[in-house]
């Protein structure tokens, strides 16, 4: 079998969505004639850990590790809580930030370009270069963020010109929403742009997770770009629905991802319909920003909320299938139109109605409607949102709330891995 080296930061026991993509690709790649090798940090700083994912790592995969030095370790001396939330992506509004948090953001944005793992680049290139030659590894795939991992790929490409280097962008680089919160100087912005351009024009092939990211990259490079979304794992688990009218969001709710339109609609329905108030449960599994919790309290919904904190992946799947309605929420911004949360595909597999709220022309919402898996609203659709919620609640009361999604088979992890295998084999001009 042809050996393929995957360079990734997130790998079990890392929790969260970033680890799932390559964990599943590695599982299925041998079926298509590839022997996956994985390179990861020996001592990573994972803001979320899920030990249950360790048992999903295939026994035959070869794991390579090297130590990494990250600033989050010394930054936690000043504020462990703030360091953890920043590394998790939870960044408060500027007016709510303490002087310490502003300082940490400035340091993160301007001294660590492209990100806090930059010090791992040169040692990794030195370590991996002889291994490529010794093991006859002709294809390397780098997965970012963190985008510093693409710099490892670029370094290896310079030392091995015949190497096939594929860069996988799970998220955009300079166009991602949180970039605006990193307090970047003009020089730092230009540096990010230059590194992004260097990667896009040195790599051999580019893989992205959304059509929007592909469209953003196309003017920046002539290299071939393939869209391979995230997906779901096939299984036979069904589960039973919750007896309550449960609206579940499984995953982090960042500060700007606060669905005030939803809280307002639910608050109104609770006041107008006694039976709705009796049956409503809002279930939140994952890291929740304090601002979101304040919004919930502000709308008088705290008595209906169950905050679970981070839940292991297996439990998350059970919660998804037990919910009456699954919440898919995204920041209302032009920069987030191409962000398709990984949880969406597991939501599709759960076959529960999805309530998607996000920006106009949001790919995540468009997939929900295309597959007839639920409804998609922008934050301005409060009245329509309220009507749909009440309609779903009445269906739940009467015959049970069900949906019949269409065309979701294209998001099966094995199907997506077959697409990746074709990208590896495809001879680009």
Secondary-structure element pattern, one letter each: EHEEHHHHEHEHEHEEHHEHEHEHEHEHH
CATH class of the largest domain: Alpha Beta
Structural class: alpha/beta
Please give the number of β-strands. Answer: 13
3D shape = globular
CATH architectural type of the largest domain:
3-Layer(aba) Sandwich
The CATH homologous superfamily of the largest domain: Glycogen Phosphorylase B
User: pLDDT average, as an integer?
Assistant: 90
- What percent of residues adopt helix (DSSP H or I)? 25-40%
CATH topology of the largest domain: Rossmann fold
Give the CA-CA distance, first to last residue. Answer: 24 Å
Order of strands across the main sheet: 3-2-1-4-5-6-7
Q: Which regions are unreliable across 5 or more consecutive residues at pLDDT < 50?
A: 75-79, 82-90
How large a portion of the residues is in β-strands, by DSSP E? 15-25%
Q: Any chance you could write out the topology, listing elements then pairs?
A:
Layout: E1 2-7, H1 20-28, E2 34-41, E3 62-66, H2 71-75, H3 80-87, H4 99-111, H5 121-135, E4 139-144, H6 148-159, E5 164-169, H7 186-202, E6 205-208, H8 211-217, E7 225-227, E8 245-250, H9 260-272, H10 274-279, E9 280-285, H11 290-298, E10 305-309, H12 313-322, E11 325-329, H13 343-350, E12 354-357, H14 363-370, E13 374-377, H15 382-398, H16 413-425
Parallel strand pairs: 1-2, 1-4, 2-3, 4-5, 5-6, 6-7, 8-9, 8-11, 9-10, 11-12, 12-13
Helix pairs in contact: 5-6, 6-7, 9-15
């Amino acid at each position: 079998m042809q050996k393929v080296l995957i360079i990734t930061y997130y790998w079990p026991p890392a929790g969260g969505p970033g680890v799932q993509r390559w964990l599943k690709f590695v599982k299925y790649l041998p079926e298509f004639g590839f022997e996956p090798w994985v390179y990861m940090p020996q001592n990573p700083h994972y803001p979320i850990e899920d030990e249950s994912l360790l048992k999903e790592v295939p026994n035959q995969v070869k794991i390579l590790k090297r130590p990494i030095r990250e600033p989050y370790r010394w930054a936690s001396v000043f504020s462990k809580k703030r360091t953890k939330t920043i590394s998790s992506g939870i960044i408060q509004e500027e007016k709510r930030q303490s002087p310490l948090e502003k300082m940490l953001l400035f340091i993160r944005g301007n001294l660590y370009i492209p990100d806090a793992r930059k010090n791992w680049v040169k040692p990794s290139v030195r370590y991996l270069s002889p291994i490529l030659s010794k093991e006859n590894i002709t294809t390397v795939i780098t997965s970012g963020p963190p985008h510093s991992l693409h710099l490892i790929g670029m370094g290896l490409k310079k030392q091995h010109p015949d190497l096939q280097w594929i860069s996988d962008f799970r998220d955009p680089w300079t166009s991602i929403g949180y970039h605006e919160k990193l307090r970047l100087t003009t020089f730092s912005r230009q540096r990010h742009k230059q590194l992004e351009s260097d990667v896009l024009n040195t790599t051999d092939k580019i893989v992205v997770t959304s059509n929007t990211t592909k469209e953003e990259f196309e003017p920046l490079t002539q290299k071939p770009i393939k869209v391979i979304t995230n997906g779901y794992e096939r299984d036979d688990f069904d589960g039973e629905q919750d007896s309550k009218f449960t609206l579940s969001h499984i995953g982090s709710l960042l500060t700007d991802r606060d669905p005030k339109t939803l809280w307002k609609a639910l608050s109104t329905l609770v006041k107008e319909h006694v039976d709705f108030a009796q049956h409503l449960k809002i279930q939140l599994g994952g890291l929740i920003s304090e601002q979101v919790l304040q919004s919930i309290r502000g709308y008088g919904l705290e008595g209906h909320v169950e905050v679970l904190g981070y839940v292991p992946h297996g439990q998350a799947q059970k919660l998804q299938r037990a919910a009456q309605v699954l919440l898919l929420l995204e920041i209302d911004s032009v920069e987030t139109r191409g962000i398709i949360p990984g949880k969406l595909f597991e939501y599709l597999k759960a076959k529960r109605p999805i309530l998607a709220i996000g920006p106009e022309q949001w790919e995540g919402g468009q997939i929900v409607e295309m597959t007839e898996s639920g409804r998609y609203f922008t934050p301005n659709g409060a009245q329509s949102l309220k009507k749909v919620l009440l309609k779903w609640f009445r269906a739940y009361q009467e015959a049970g709330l069900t949906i019949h999604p269409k065309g979701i088979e294209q998001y099966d992890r094995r199907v997506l891995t077959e697409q990746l295998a074709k990208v590896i084999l495809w001879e680009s001009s």
